[in-house]
Amino acid sequence: MTSTQDRVAAAPASIPLTRPQLPSWAPLLVAVVAVAAAALPGLLLGWGLAPMVLIAVVIFVVALPTWSSAVEGSRKAQDRLAAALVWAGFGLAMIPLGTLMWQVISNGVPVLSAEFFTYSMRNVVGEGGGIYHAIIGTVIVTACAALISVPIGVMAGVYLIEYGAGSRIARVVTFLVDVMTGIPSIVAGLFAYALFVLFFGPGVRMGIGGAVALSVLMIPIVVRSTEEMLKLVPDELREASYALGVPKWRTITKVVLPTAMAGIVTGVTLAVARVAGETAPLLIIAGDTDSVNFNAFAERMATLPVYIYYSYMQPGIPPEFGQERAWGAALVLIAIVMALNILARFISRYFAPKTGR
Description:
The chain has 357 residues and is mainly α.
């Protein structure tokens, strides 16, 4: 008994349950050291930016887990390694995006002016002119494509979930939607051109043809987004409506669709942003013009993607003015797509079902 009491008395008062931890600023310190270690020999030897970034990433991925293993143990070091690889992958993915944005902004901002947004290219040679006609064409063609795609896509999604779930027709439609999702955009343009040639003859060019081509690309996105949002609507809501004697069509229009409206509208907005920058189908069927055209059913219609293509590939003489306008139009197009994505976030939040009492 005495020896047992002596061993208990000799034991430490408390056993630590945690290992030492690296400070919160350790990853930042390792990142700074990695950048310095890669930049110093790179500047002395005349390396480019890409090799220095690659070496800095390798040093960071190796150094941080090694330090963590010595202080925190192998399990925490493995976690640090996984986190470092994720951050390194994210950083490498942001390099081309950041380079692209820097090129577009640095070359496009000097071109922006009131004249650039309010003038077309009619009778303009060399300096001057703007993208007013291309902005109008993009708005008209995209709006027509949305008017065609949204009703078809939403109704197809409602059929697949509410009426045809599990049926052979629904499986066939789902398969076709999957196939349409992977269709190259130029194939959509060829389809629209072939369709309009049947009615108007060879060489037809008009804005509504571009809208039809874009709708081929939009419909599968709208169908898929509608499907996924309708699947998230709880069956209890449908059953409660049926229990009150409400018909199925009214349950769908008054209960199911309003509940899923946030996701559906978000999907539609993202689909519009997706097709707003398409070039290949509009090159084939919508064509290009230097004048403003408000009639989608007559003559050629300029759009921003096609305007950018021709301004850079056929800039005229001297070429620098056409290329500058191409950079400015590219910046405007990117801003429009970004604005549509931000709008989709706000729409999703606005139409989201209110959960508070």
